């Protein structure tokens, strides 16, 4: 019996054991069930139709609007509180970026990789979500390969906004709190024409000072903070959002539902701190280079850093001195070499049309379109005042102003047509659908630039490539890019009631993905520093007469399927088994030359096995809901961010294969009318099974095993099995961990209702969460082989700076509803109550620049809220 079969057998035995206990439990409690508090029914659309969550044979979590308030969910990272298997990380662009991970599957990397987890707003994929006036947020664990628009291997997060109705209602909310936080939010809706036309208008404004100081001047190297120039505050919030919805019902069988959404955001990015530094990871040539002694290097340094290169100092010395400065500043301050102020504007429209042909047949169409403009989105990857590794958009003018990028020409739109029906006396529920998505960049644009050691990586394009690819023979050039990405898919899925207790489900999806990239040449703009002309990435128009080079990923088809069996043992208990597949599309590293062998990368695929139990029960006046899922997943052709061998280019590559095994457990218990306890537990064993990396000592000179050997000595990392081969010498190490994947997560959420004692609707809620250690780098142990001993970091001495130790967070909230028998409420909330210092992500950089940056979680926050409903 192979390992997969053993795991499935163990899972089935575990569920059978729990099931037998549940049946005995139900029998023993039959006489007391009426005395137990009723468990509220939860409706989800995990299978694209509204149904009870306990009847859905996959792992899914749904959180209502009221529960979102209790858990203080206000942005993307707060979603960590919602569901087992769901984890969010931050990067340096801002706190509200949607970067989710489910069951260890996260975003595939920069440079155009598709995400492993997709967010849906009102069933439209990748539509920027908002966190106000929501009906619910639903989390679907595991591959979504058949019924949802974008096929994914990790899961999906569904945001369902409040829909207009015939009931006139609304609310107004004001919040104020720490760091000068202020928020105004409200919504109003109801009928315009009774039973025919309903509307809803809602909006939110939030503003808060930042809590990480970024000092803009270099100051005295290693000197005290008060010698550094004035600071701006990163990790700030300044957003304004509005949503307008309209429902038109010309008849009882036809409904049209339209949503218009707009969002604006302005901030100074996320604070990125130099967590750990080791100059030995810098190549010897750069580490020992005296920058001021090289006129060109000194001019480049001054251009990108904004101050002259310190006299007589090498890159290695500067890295050490800036780190000493970071240690003095502490974890909530940094020194930056440029402004990270950025703005974004989002506009979108969604339209649903539903037509009931009869009681058993419905036609649906879901259309979505959105576009985003950004200005100044950049990441100070090295987290210092040095131009070591910085990600910046191209400039708009010699003054250093960033342009507005994107907008209407780069709109994304999708359309999904569905047929939903019930057949054979309602024994068969079936869906048939077609999905189309078009994602084009219709403007010539220069890819964002990575500034590496004061020089844009890969810029300008070499004269040889300019001549060979674009017919430009005047020397170097800028490479401008357009992309055309689209997906077409057809799918069908049906659930057949074999008996009143047993259902079988089968689904199949066939998709065609195509990606075209178009590149051409533009002029190279220079700026003069100390009499030296330095090429600078600017927004430029194509060179007249330059040819266009086209690259295409062939229009290959990818198929996915779902097979499920579920058994309703009782009216309140179900067991199920499902086998699913999923994939995420490949893409292009547009920052690379089009003739680079790593320009394209292929799709990643997943094979999933899941067994589960869902039950609602009562015993001796206690009500409960128990959901359990056990899964075994096999990933092939996994994608990951990594360095292109022999270069400083950060690219997405297909690196190998992995396996994910886990358990997800959710529980809700209501022992009385005054106490409710919910929570979850998940275990995840995520491991590479194949991940080979071939280098030479020239590319990994930081390895102690390479010292004294020729730079051409071959080096092979086997990250999955923990072996390093340097010119025939084998070194063993602990196999590398998959980044971001914590082995354990636990959440306990008790709510105490004080109504029986105070005769007032007052609730005390807590949310205590534990997350075990996780890797912040895709190669957290092999990177440090022979090069690291426990050393000082910003947060103290640690055994491995590329692994975040486990931590516990505590949030508390008090709600006083229906004050004075009116629809007013008053709330007070505090998050991270014990002010825990922890990392939420990393910006990478150790093997490039000898630095390990980090993004910290929020400090203790509090706010007071006044809410009125009508």
Radius of gyration: 28 Å
Whole-number mean pLDDT? 87
Biggest sheet overview: 22 strands, antiparallel, barrel
- Percent of residues in helices comes to under 10%
Distance between the termini: 62 Å
Give the percentage of residues in beta strands. Answer: over 45%
Shape call: globular
Residue windows where pLDDT falls under 50 for at least 5 positions:
1-34, 219-226
Beta strands, count: 52
Total number of helices: 8
Textual characterization of the structure:
It is a single chain. A hairpin with a 2-residue loop joins strand 31 and strand 32. With 870 residues, the protein is mainly β. The termini are far apart. The strands form 11 sheets. It has a 22-stranded antiparallel β-barrel. The protein has a 5-stranded mixed beta sheet with strand order 3-8-9-6-7. Strands 14-13-18 form a 3-stranded mixed beta sheet. The protein is built from 8 helices and 52 strands. Helices cover 9% and strands 51% of the residues.
Short note summarizing the structure:
With 870 residues, the protein is mainly beta.
């Amino acid at each position: 019996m192979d390992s997969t079969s053993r795991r499935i057998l163990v899972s089935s035995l575990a569920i059978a054991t729990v099931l037998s206990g549940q049946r005995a439990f139900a029998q023993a409690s039959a006489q007391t069930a009426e005395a137990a508090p009723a468990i509220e029914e939860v409706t989800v659309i995990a299978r694209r139709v509204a149904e009870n969550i306990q009847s859905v044979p996959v792992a899914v979590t749904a959180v209502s609007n009221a529960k979102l308030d209790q858990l203080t969910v206000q942005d993307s990272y707060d979603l960590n509180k919602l569901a087992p298997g769901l984890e969010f990380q931050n990067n340096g662009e801002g706190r509200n970026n949607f970067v989710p991970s489910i069951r260890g599957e996260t975003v595939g990397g920069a440079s155009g990789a598709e995400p492993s987890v997709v967010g849906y707003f009102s069933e439209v994929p990748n539509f920027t979500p908002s966190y106000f006036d929501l009906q619910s947020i639903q989390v679907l664990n595991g591959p979504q390969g058949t019924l949802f628009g974008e096929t994914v291997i990790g899961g999906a997060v569904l945001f369902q906004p409040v829909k207009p109705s015939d009931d006139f209602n609304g609310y107004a909310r004001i919040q104020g709190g720490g760091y000068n936080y202020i928020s105004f939010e409200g919504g109003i809706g109801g009928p315009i024409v009774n039973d025919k036309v309903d509307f809803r208008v809602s909006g939110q404004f939030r503003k808060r000072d930042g809590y990480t100081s970024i000092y803009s001047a270099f100051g005295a190297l290693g000197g005290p903070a008060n010698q550094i120039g004035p600071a701006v505050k990163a990790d700030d919030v300044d957003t304004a959002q509005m949503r307008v919805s309209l429902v038109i019902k010309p008849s009882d069988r036809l409904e049209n539902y339209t949503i218009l959404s707009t969002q604006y955001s302005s901030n100074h990015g996320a604070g990125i701190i130099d967590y750990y530094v080791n100059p030995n990871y810098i190549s010897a040539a750069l580490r020992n280079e005296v920058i001021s002694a090289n006129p060109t290097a000194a001019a480049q340094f001054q251009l990108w850093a904004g101050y002259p290169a310190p006299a007589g100092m090498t890159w290695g010395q500067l890295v050490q001195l800036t780190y000493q400065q970071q240690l003095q500043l502490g974890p909530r301050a940094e020194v930056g070499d440029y402004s990270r102020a950025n703005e974004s504007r989002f506009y979108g429209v969604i339209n649903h049309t539903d037509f009931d042909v009869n009681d058993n047949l419905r036609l649906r169409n879901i259309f979505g379109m959105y576009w985003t403009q950004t200005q100044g989105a950049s990441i100070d990857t090295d987290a210092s005042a040095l131009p070591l590794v910085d990600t910046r958009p191209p400039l708009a003018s010699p003054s250093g102003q960033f342009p507005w990028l994107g907008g209407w020409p780069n709109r994304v739109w999708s359309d999904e047509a569905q047929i939903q029906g019930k057949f054979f006396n309602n024994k068969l529920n079936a869906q048939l659908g077609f999905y189309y998505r078009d994602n084009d960049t219709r403007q010539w644009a220069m890819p964002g630039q990575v500034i590496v050691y004061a020089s844009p990586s890969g810029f300008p394009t070499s004269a040889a490539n300019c001549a060979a690819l674009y017919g430009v023979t005047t020397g170097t050039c800028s490479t401008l890019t357009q992309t055309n990405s689209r997906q077409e898919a057809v799918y069908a899925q049906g659930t057949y009631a074999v008996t009143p207790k047993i259902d079988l489900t089968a689904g199949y999806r066939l998709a065609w993905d195509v990606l075209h990239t178009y590149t051409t040449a533009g002029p190279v703009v220079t700026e003069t520093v100390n009499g030296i002309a330095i090429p600078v990435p600017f927004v430029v128009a194509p060179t007249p007469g330059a040819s266009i080079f086209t690259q295409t990923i062939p229009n290959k088809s990818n198929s996915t399927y779902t097979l499920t069996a579920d058994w309703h043992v009782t009216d309140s208990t179900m067991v199920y088994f499902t086998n699913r597949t999923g994939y995420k599309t490949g893409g292009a590293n547009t920052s690379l030359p089009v003739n680079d062998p790593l320009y394209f990368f292929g799709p990643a695929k997943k094979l999933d096995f899941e067994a589960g139990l869902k039950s609602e029960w009562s015993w001796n006046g206690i009500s409960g809901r128990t959901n359990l899922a056990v899964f075994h997943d096999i990933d092939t052709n996994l994608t990951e961010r990594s360095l292109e061998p022999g270069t400083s280019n950060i690219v997405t590559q297909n690196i190998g294969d992995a396996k994910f095994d886990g358990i997800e457990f959710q529980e809700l218990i209501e022992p009385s009318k005054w106490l409710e306890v919910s929570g979850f537990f998940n275990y995840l064993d995520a491991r590479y099974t194949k991940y080979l990396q071939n280098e030479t000592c020239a590319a990994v000179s930081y390895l102690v095993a390479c010292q004294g050997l020729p730079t051409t000595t071959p080096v092979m990392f086997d990250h999955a099995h923990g072996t390093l081969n340097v010119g025939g010498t084998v070194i063993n190490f602990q196999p590398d961990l998959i980044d971001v994947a914590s082995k354990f997560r636990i959440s306990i959420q008790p709510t105490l209702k004080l109504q029986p004692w105070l005769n007032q609707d007052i609730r005390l809620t807590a949310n205590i969460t534990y997350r075990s250690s996780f890797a912040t780098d895709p190669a957290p142990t092999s990177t440090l082989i022979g090069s690291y001993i426990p050393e000082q970091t910003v947060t103290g001495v640690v055994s491995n700076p590329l692994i975040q130790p486990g931590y516990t967070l505590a949030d508390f909230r008090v709600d006083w509803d229906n004050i004075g028998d009116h629809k007013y409420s008053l709330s007070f909330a505090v998050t991270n109550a014990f002010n825990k210092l922890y990392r939420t992500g990393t910006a990478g950089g150790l093997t490039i620049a000898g630095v390990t940056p980090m993004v910290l979680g929020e400090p203790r926050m509090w706010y007071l809220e006044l809410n009125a409903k009508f």
